[in-house]
Structure formats: C-alpha cells, structure tokens
Amino acid sequence: MKVAIVHEWLANMGGSEKVVLAFKEIFPDAPIYTTVYNPDKVDPAFHNMDIRTSFIQKLPRGRTAYQSYLPLMPTAVEQFDLSGYDVVLSSSHAVAKGVLTGANTLHITYCHTPMRYAWDFYHEYLNGPGVGRVKRMLIPWLMNYIRMWDRLSADRVDYFIANSGNVAGRIRKHYRREAAVIYPPVDTEYFTPADEIGDYYFIVSRLIPYKRIDLAVAAFTRLGLPLKIAGDGPERKRLEEIAGPSVEFLGRVSDAEMKKLYAECKAFIFPGEEDFGITPVEAQAAGRPVIAYGAGGCLETVVSGVTGEFFQSQTADALAEVVAGFDPGRYQTGLIRQHALSFDRELFKKRIYIFVENRYRDFKKNGR
C-alpha cells in the first residue's frame, strides 16, 4: 500500500502538524505534499523528511506570508500529481482535502475543521481587529469563491475522519457528509503530575484574537490572582497593555519549562472555542484541572466537576466568577490523568492505521 500525506502548510507548529508527525510514524515511507514548508518554524523531526511543496513556495515571501496566497491555494493543491499512490491521507483545515486523485486511489481526509474563516467564524474574522476598510470590502468576494470551491472539493474525499464530534457536526452541516471521529494525538506520557502545586493559573496559546486570551487577562487583572501566559503572537502587545501586575507574559518557553508549568499550576485556563483543543488534554495529562469556556471540543475532553469546570458565557465576568469560587483541592490528580490517557498518541496511531487498512481493503474489494 503506497501512501502519500497531504497537509496545508508546514510553516508553524500546532495540533495539526503534530497529527502529520503521527501520520509519518504510521506510514514512514509516505512523502508529504504541502503548499509551503518553512523548516525554521516547525519541529526538527520534519527536517529529514521527503517534503514536496507547491509553486507558492517560490513566490515572494511564500514561506512566511503564505496565508496571503489563499486565493492561489486551491490551484496549488490541485497541481500535486498523486496518481502513483494507493492511498492519499490528507490533514485538512483549509485546502488539503481538495487534491485531485484518480479512480484507483483512495482519499481519506482527517479534518481538523471545515475552513473556519469561510464558514462558522466568517463574521468574527471579517469584523476582527486588523481587518481594515479595503480588506473588509474584498473579503466577502474572496470568501464567496472559497466557499464554493471548499464545498465542491469535499466531494473529492472518499472518507472523512473528524477530530471531534464537534467537527463531525460541522462536516455534516457544511459538506453534507458523515465522518468517523478519531481524537487527535496527545503525548500523555510526556506530561506528568508534580509533587507540589504552585500559586498560579496557566495558559499556553498563540496570542491571536479568536483564542480570547483577553478574557482571561481581564478576569485575572480584576481578581488580582497570578496568571502565567506562555506563547506569543500579534495580540501580545494589546494584551500586555490591558494586563495588571498579576498577569505575567512568558513568551515562548521550552518543552521542559512547559511541562513544569502545566504540572504545577492550580488550574489551566482555556477561554476560547476550539474544534478540539489539545492543550486542555495536556494539562489533564499533568493531573491538573481545566477551567474552560463551555463550547466546542472542550465539551468532549473536560468532565465538569471531575477534571475541571466550565463557564457558560464567553465573558470576563463569567470566567472571573468561576475562578473566584474555584477550589483546586476538590480534584483528584490521578483521576484527571486517567481521563487524559484515553487521548494518548499511541491509541490515535492504532485507530488511524486500522481505519485506513479497513477502508483500503473495502475500496479494493468493492471499487469504492
């Protein structure tokens, strides 16, 4: 079984890139097709892999300003010649699922979400910070085209896998397709509980608007409680301007520091709405409870009253109310960690392999 892996872009490290690394462990001989590749921004594990890029790689600032080339990406992925493969496994949150495959090639898409800025969060992106008057005039015309292509390209996929029940619902809504659910891989063995807990709450995130870190900054500034925030991004300056002295911005931290920060926090704070959300599971693997906005993938990974708590309105007031009444002593570290083990990386790899093998066997037998 000759396999190819397709991913949107390898230009930063996030949950979807960790999925691609797991795919490579399952299918080590599979090349990776992607629109752009920036080795300086990804895990060194990618450096010795067979990575094949599109024409966008050679365009001005293609490796760094790749998202500006979104209108070209449908054409870019359609240029990949995948005719020599038995199975194409695409990791898609934007355009990867739109590759062209022949009648003798099985195409399975692991969908992190239907394109967020074209569907569910279109109006939030359109009216978000940094979108000026000119962009606000052009984006509706661009997204109209992108939505049509996105919907059409969904029909090119033989089988969808969703990273959560939440995303499976979006696939059903926007693509009119059913999807199996296989939760993404979490390195639960790496994150372990600490002997002692510190006197702080913790966030790790890219500092971008939809993550809603501003809610946590406002809530903890008001409460005067210590909050440590790891991560960087375009929102950092604005967040620092509204933060009080109890909020500390750590920037990018090493894996070892991250492990320690997870394990010793009173609780992990997750104020955004994510398709799945790997960081709350990492916190639980370290035995720490999560305080999360009660929407999206967290509803499938956090057990209220057992591994954490939800705040129901996405406001600083609602978060502050839950934090003010939060008692970390009521949660059992061992029970929290045991729950996180159900999302382990090895289980993910096993489930993906079985799914691909079974679907390929059916495909060869039935011709579909």
Residue share in β-strands: 5-15%
End-to-end gap: 16 Å
Which fold name fills CATH's third level, the topology of the largest domain?
Rossmann fold
CATH architecture of the largest domain: 3-Layer(aba) Sandwich
Determine the mean pLDDT.
Answer: 93
Give the strand order, joined by hyphens, for the main sheet. Answer: 3-2-1-4-5-6-7
Shape: globular
List SSEs in N-to-C order: EHEEHEEHHEHEEHEHEHEHEHEHHH
Helical residues, percent:
25-40%
User: Low-confidence stretches at least 5 residues in length (pLDDT < 50)?
Assistant: none
* Number of distinct helices: 13
Counting helices, strands and paired strands, the structural category is alpha/beta
The CATH class of the largest domain, by name, is Alpha Beta
Please describe what this structure looks like.
- It is a single chain.
- The protein is α/β, with parallel strands linked by helices.
- It has two domains: 3-185 and 345-366, 3-Layer(aba) Sandwich (Rossmann fold); 201-342, Rossmann fold.
- 37% of the residues lie in helices and 15% in strands.
- It has helices at 15-26, 73-78, 122-126, 133-154, 165-175, 213-223, 236-242, 255-264, 278-285, 298-301, 316-324, 333-340, 345-366, and strands spanning 3-7, 32-34, 51-53, 87-92, 106-111, 159-162, 179-181, 201-204, 227-230, 247-251, 268-270, 290-293, 308-311.
- The strands form three sheets. A seven-stranded parallel sheet has the order 3-2-1-4-5-6-7, sandwiched between helices. Strands 8-9-10 form a three-stranded parallel sheet, sandwiched between helices.
- Helix 1 crosses helix 13 (345-366).
- It is globular.
- The mean pLDDT is 93.
